Amino acid sequence: MDASILLVGGDDFLATLLVRIRNLVSCTVEIAPNPSEAMPLIQAQQPDLVILQGNQPGGLELCRQIKEQTRLAWIYCILLDYPTQMLAEAWRDRFWEMECRAEALESGADAYLWCPKNDAKGEALDIDVIFQQDRLLSSQIASGLRTVKNHRELMRTNDILSAIALSDPLTELNNRRALDWELPRQVQNARSRSEQMSALMLDVDYFKNINDTYGHPVGDRALQLISGRLRHNLRFRDTLFRYGGEEFVILLSNTDEQEALLVGRRLCRLISDQTFAIDETLSLDMTISAGASSLKESDDSKGASLLKRADQNLLKAKAAGRNRVIGGEDEEPELVKH
């Protein structure tokens, strides 16, 4: 994994830490002189680790801000103190270090390291002590990177599982669960932008006869071919779902009722005008029926009433003879002309 680390602190802190980091870890290192300049970098670049100067004003608040934002909370934060001699004099009883560590962890830091520059007498640290400090810093960075790596792998797994959960395995279209999530979102977007929105509900005509006559494998293949033809002939802003069985739903953003009817007629023609080659020995002629509806002020926020009208119009199209699209509430059915 290509690691990225952001160092936040004053000149002396950065000068000391940069040398140590580059000797300990192979990674990309960015620097920020203070917490206020660090936050925009963190939001834009989302580094794996942030190492902050412990005694710099605003450091604890920066940790708190990072952990309060869901999209940033996974970033591993290390607060690092290089105490002066005066602070080093208090480290024998460990009280000061314990107090600083508690405050850092309470603010959201994942780790706190205490690395004095001098011993209690103000003299340079023994080489063995410096080695142990470097070892501790290196191990803490490695621990942080492992944590981040595990988080990223978990997120990738969740993305895959989410995609599987929202995808129909037969047609590879969005499934009904995806529709339940997307429909309220599109309703909200349409209303917030004062835009039109419509829905089409489609059904393959006489599909049961295909299953009864040729068997379910042929029916499955027919659904795959119809799905592909629909998917490849939609506008970029349209969203296609397999609603269940041989039914499909299309959400049409920024589309009024008349335009939705035009889309429905075009799709009906695309299905009926060309046969479907199931295999080398079998081709089928198929048609679809469609019901259209457009968003009203009285519709609920989840889009259930919008979808219900589309379903009712689909039933009207079926009752009127199939291979046609019906929209509105009182419109006459319109047969698709070849």
Automatic annotation (TrEMBL):
<protein>
    <submittedName>
        <fullName>GGDEF domain-containing protein</fullName>
    </submittedName>
</protein>
<dbReference type="InterPro" id="IPR001789">
    <property type="entry name" value="Sig_transdc_resp-reg_receiver"/>
</dbReference>
<dbReference type="Pfam" id="PF00990">
    <property type="entry name" value="GGDEF"/>
</dbReference>
<dbReference type="InterPro" id="IPR000160">
    <property type="entry name" value="GGDEF_dom"/>
</dbReference>
<dbReference type="InterPro" id="IPR029787">
    <property type="entry name" value="Nucleotide_cyclase"/>
</dbReference>
<dbReference type="GO" id="GO:0052621">
    <property type="term" value="F:diguanylate cyclase activity"/>
</dbReference>
<dbReference type="GO" id="GO:0043709">
    <property type="term" value="P:cell adhesion involved in single-species biofilm formation"/>
</dbReference>
<dbReference type="GO" id="GO:0000160">
    <property type="term" value="P:phosphorelay signal transduction system"/>
</dbReference>
<feature type="domain" description="GGDEF">
    <location>
        <begin position="195"/>
        <end position="330"/>
    </location>
</feature>
<dbReference type="InterPro" id="IPR043128">
    <property type="entry name" value="Rev_trsase/Diguanyl_cyclase"/>
</dbReference>
<dbReference type="GO" id="GO:1902201">
    <property type="term" value="P:negative regulation of bacterial-type flagellum-dependent cell motility"/>
</dbReference>
<feature type="domain" description="Response regulatory">
    <location>
        <begin position="4"/>
        <end position="130"/>
    </location>
</feature>
<dbReference type="GO" id="GO:0005886">
    <property type="term" value="C:plasma membrane"/>
</dbReference>
<dbReference type="InterPro" id="IPR050469">
    <property type="entry name" value="Diguanylate_Cyclase"/>
</dbReference>
<dbReference type="InterPro" id="IPR011006">
    <property type="entry name" value="CheY-like_superfamily"/>
</dbReference>
